Amino acid sequence: MPLLPRPILLVPVLAGLLAACATDGTPPPPVVAAPAATETREKPAENALANRLRVTTTVGEPAAFVREARPAQQDYIPVGVTPQRTGVQRSATELQSIEKELDAQRQRSRAFANRPKPPSPYDGRVPPRLRPAAPAQAE
């Protein structure tokens, strides 16, 4: 029996790693604050294979200057959190006027795209290639 090439042997391992990273489709819970440096993070059961193969990393405690530089309150929206919409509520007449403006702009754009275009000076033939001048021969 011939030996299998090494990339073929890696396919089951990679498939197992990808399966370990799969989720069930539920969104992650919103992040309120970064975990404290002293907290230990639990490893989910889905990553057991990756942990056994030692292809995961463990997050260590950050250095002192990193802890000091981190703000107590996050000033960004974490991934997976939908921000509250704070838009202006418009009346039906305002929406109709905006729609009319957008329709007028659409008609202007389509009219510009459909305008008559001048014919191209190119007639479809490829011009002949110019031959380089022959060097002058000394007599």
Please compute the radius of gyration using only Cα atoms: 33 Å
Task: Please trace the helix and strand order, writing H or E for each element.
Answer: HHHH
Beta-strand residue fraction: under 5%
Q: What ranges have pLDDT less than 50 throughout 5 or more consecutive residues?
A: none
What's the number of helices? 4
- Count of beta strands: 0
Straight-line distance between termini: 79 Å
Helix content: 25-40%
Structural class: mainly alpha
Label this structure with key terms.
139 residues; 35% helix
Describe the overall structure.
The chain is mainly alpha-helical and about 140 residues long. It has a domain at about 5-20 and about 40-75. Helix content is about 35%, strand content about 0%. The radius of gyration is 33 Å and the shape is flat.
